[in-house]
C-alpha cells in the first residue's frame, strides 16, 4: 500500500499554460486601430509611427493602415503603420 497517496498530484503540478506570444499581424497586412500586432516579453520589436506599446510590451495599432516591419541603423526591429490612403 502507498504511504504517500495524495502527494503525486501536488508534486506534478508545475506546468503552466502557453502564453500565445508572437506576431499577430504580419508585415503587409491591414490593421485597424486597437488591433494587437505583437505580443512579446521585452522589446524584441519596438514601436514606430502609429504603434503604441502596452505595459507588458504588447504592440498595438493606433491608426488604421498597413503594418510594416523595418530595421533601423541601430539594428533594432521597429513596427510602423503606413496610414491608409484617404479616398
Structure notes:
The chain is mainly β and 87 residues long. The strands form 2 sheets. It has a 4-stranded antiparallel beta sheet, with no helix packed on it. Strands 2-7-8-4 form a 4-stranded mixed beta sheet, with no helix packed on it.
Radius of gyration: 20 Å
Low-confidence blocks of residues: none
| Order of secondary-structure elements | HEEEEEEEE
First-last Cα distance: 78 Å
- Helical segment tally? 1
Give me the count of strands.
Answer: 8
The profile of the biggest β sheet is:
4 strands, antiparallel
By secondary-structure content and strand pairing, the structural class works out as mainly beta
Q: What's the rounded overall pLDDT mean?
A: 89
Question: Into which percentage range does the β-strand content fall?
Answer: 35-45%
Gross geometry: elongated
Summarize the structure.
This protein is 6% helix and 36% strand. It has 87 residues and is mainly β.
What secondary-structure arrangement, pairings included, does this model have?
Layout: H1 7-11, E1 22-23, E2 30-31, E3 36-39, E4 45-47, E5 51-53, E6 59-61, E7 65-71, E8 77-83
Amino acid at each position: 500500500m502507498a504511504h504517500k497517496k495524495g502527494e503525486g498530484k501536488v508534486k506534478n503540478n508545475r506546468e503552466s499554460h502557453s502564453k500565445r506570444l508572437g506576431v499577430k499581424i504580419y508585415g503587409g497586412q491591414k490593421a485597424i486601430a486597437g488591433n494587437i500586432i505583437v505580443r512579446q516579453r521585452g522589446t524584441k520589436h519596438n514601436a514606430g509611427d502609429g504603434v503604441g506599446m502596452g505595459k507588458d510590451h504588447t504592440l498595438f495599432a493606433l491608426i488604421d493602415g498597413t503594418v510594416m516591419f523595418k530595421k533601423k541603423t541601430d539594428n533594432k526591429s521597429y513596427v510602423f503603420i503606413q496610414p491608409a490612403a484617404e479616398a
